[in-house]
Amino acid sequence: MGERQVEFRNVSFRYQEDMPWVLKDVSFTIGPDEWVAIIGHNGSGKSTIAKLMNGLLFPQEGEILVDGIRVNQETVWDVRKQVGMVFQNPDNQFVGTTVRDDVAFGMENHGMPRELMVKRIEESLSAVGMQEYKIHEPHRLSGGQKQRVAIASILAVSPEFIILDEATAMLDPKGRKEIMQTIHGVQKERDLSLITITHDLHEVTQASRVIVMNQGEVWMQGTPREVFSRKEHVIEIGLDTPFISKLADHLKAEGVSLAREPLNHQELLEELWTLRSTM
Ligand SMILES: Nc1ncnc2c1ncn2[C@@H]1O[C@H](COP(=O)(O)OP(=O)(O)OP(=O)(O)O)[C@@H](O)[C@H]1O
Ligand SMILES: [Mg+2]
User: Fold this and answer.
1) How far, in Å, is the centroid of ligand 1 from the Cα of 44?
2) Is the dihedral of CA 8, 193, 233, 229 positive or negative?
3) Which residues contact 17 (CB under 8 A, 6 or more apart)?
4) Model pLDDT for residues 210-245, shown as the tens digit of each residue
5) What's the 43 CA to ligand 2 centre distance in angstroms?
6) Does the Cβ of 84 fall within 6 Å of ligand 1?
7) Options 3.30.420.40, 3.30.360.10, 3.40.50.300, 3.30.479.20; which CATH number does 6-224 get?
C-alpha cells in the first residue's frame, strides 16, 4: 500500500476514438483529510473525472493511482472499496426494498461478514440521522432522505474517499445545508477525503481546495480564496462568483477598501469591523 491519496497523472480521456478528447493531460493529487471541490462549466469534464476515479471508466492516456495502486480492470474492485460515489439522482442508486437492505447491498458486494454488516448499518444510518427508517421503502422517502441513505450506503463500506457528484443539487437550500453539515461531520470524525462536484458556490467556499476545470483541462488549483480573488478570470471561463464576493466588489466600487477577499458573511463582517475601528 502506498500513501493515502488519489493521483491523476497526465490523464487524457475520450468516450470514443472518433470523438474529441474530454479530458486533456489532467494531473492533480487529493490527499488525506482534504475536502476538494471540483468546479467548471457544463461539459468541462467533472463527472468524467468522478467516473475515472472509481473505475467506471479507464483513461486512454496517463494513469490514476488510488493509494499508489493503478486503477485498471484487475484492481477496480479494491479501488471501489476505497472510493465511494454518490450521484445527483438518488432514485437510480437504490437496489434494496428497504433502507436496511439497501445499505447492506454495497457491503455484500464487498463480501463483508454478517455481524460487521449489522453493526455498520446501525452506525452509518445514525451518522446521517436515518436510523428510524431502517425498514422503510427507499422510494417513498423525500429527496433529502434518499440522499442521506445513499450516503449511508457509501459510509457503510468505509471508504477513504467520497465523491459527491452534484449529490445535493436536487435539494432545497436547507436540505443541502443539512446534508453538507452531516457529511462534513462524518468526514472529520472518520478522517475521510471528500471530493465534491457542485455548482453551489457557497459550498465551494467551504472546501479546503478547489480544482477549476475548463474545456477538459485543469485551469487552476488553489484555496477558495486564491481562486475567487482571481474573479475576472473565473468569470471569463463562464463561472459565477460567490454572493459575498460580488457584494465585496460593490463595496470596493463605492470606495470601501477591504484588506482581503471575504468568502462568507462572517469574514465580510470582520473586514467591515476592522475598517470601522481604524476609521
Ligand atoms: N457517455 C458519454 N458518451 C459520449 N460523450 C459523453 C458521455 N458522457 C459525457 N460526454 C461528453 O463529455 C464531455 C464532459 O462531460 P462531463 O459529464 O464529464 O461534464 P461535466 O463537467 O460533468 O458537466 P455538467 O456540469 O453538465 O455535469 C461533454 O462534452 C459530454 O457531452
Ligand atoms: Mg456532471
Assistant:
1) 7
2) negative
3) none
4) 999 999 999 999 999 999 988 888 888 888 888 888
5) 7
6) no
7) 3.40.50.300
